[in-house]
Specification:
It is built from 5 helices and 12 strands. The protein is of the alpha+beta class and 282 residues long.
Length: 282
């Protein structure tokens, strides 16, 4: 199973415009992915660089017709006329999607900095490996207080989901009370907006006191003792804010870690900033 996670920054190309056809072609150039996790997908915005207001969620679904599109909106606000301004995450899956849960992450007030509502988009997929829970997220950049609260919420979600998987709920034969499975084996992918070695990085992977399978960084599992390959600012652009660094990750639950066969950062220049990160499970 191949998975790609990528902060597409509204589908921006190296030229700075937003082009979903280019984004789709770039994803296919990285790997023949079975599951794609995307952050910073937008619709209705014309005041962000390169955006023409197009519904990028619909365009991505169009470019990947053999995949189930799953949308998670973090921001949904009034636009011009009847249009809505939408911003969030997306999962594209070749596998059947058994259940989707959209978690609004904590957003405690921090009035001194810019911030926005953040979301974790969870989907349980019916894969050849069994039910697999894939979550993609994009944590707060400007506020460490908010980002820290969001990391702790992701740990709460992992604890809750693992308990659901271990003790399936009673349910009706159909309808919203139907007992749909929630995957135990789990992947958490996305832009954490924290660095390897940071408090947030270690907190997310800390052991649980009740036997819940802890998360582990896929890069560290596959490349022990090696520094993380950078995922941001690999290519020169005018006004580049920093030297190359890492803030995009895939974390695996401990029960899934033995299946990890490959982890790599795409070296080619597909966009202005973030690089796709790809993993393969065997």
């Amino acid at each position: 199973m191949n998975l790609i996670t990528w902060n597409i920054q509204r589908g921006r190309t190296p030229r700075g415009d937003c082009d979903m056809a280019h984004t789709a072609a770039s994803l296919r150039a990285v790997a023949d992915a079975d599951v794609i996790c995307l952050q910073e997908v937008s619709s209705g915005y014309t005041d962000m660089p390169g955006c023409d207001g197009a519904n990028q969620f619909a365009l991505l679904a169009h470019h990947f017709p053999g995949y189930v599109p799953v949308v998670g909106l973090a921001c949904d606000s009034a636009g011009e006329g009847v249009a809505r301004c939408l911003f969030g995450n997306m999962i594209l899956s070749r596998y059947p999607v058994l259940q989707v849960i959209r978690h609004a992450l904590p957003w405690p007030p921090d009035p001194g900095v810019m911030s926005m509502q953040r979301i974790a988009l969870e989907a349980t997929l019916a894969t050849p490996l069994g039910p697999l829970r894939v979550t993609t997220t994009h944590l707060e950049y400007f506020s460490r207080a908010q980002r820290s609260a969001q990391v702790q919420r992701l740990r709460d979600v992992q604890r809750e989901a693992a308990a659901h998987a271990a003790h399936p709920r009673a349910g009706a034969a159909a309808g919203p009370f139907g007992a749909m499975p929630r995957g135990g084996a789990a992947l958490l992918a996305g832009d954490g907006n924290f660095l390897p070695g940071s408090w947030e990085y270690h907190c997310l992977q800390a052991p649980f006191d009740d036997g819940t399978p802890a998360y582990a960084d896929a890069w560290r599992l596959r490349h022990p003792g090696q520094a993380h390959a950078p995922t941001v600012c690999l290519h020169d652009h005018p006004g580049r804010p920093a030297d190359p660094f890492t803030c995009d990750f895939v974390f695996l639950s401990a029960d899934l870690a033995p299946r990890l066969a490959e982890v790599r950062v795409a070296p080619d220049e597909f966009g202005p900033d973030h690089q796709p990160l790809a993993i393969r499970l065997a």
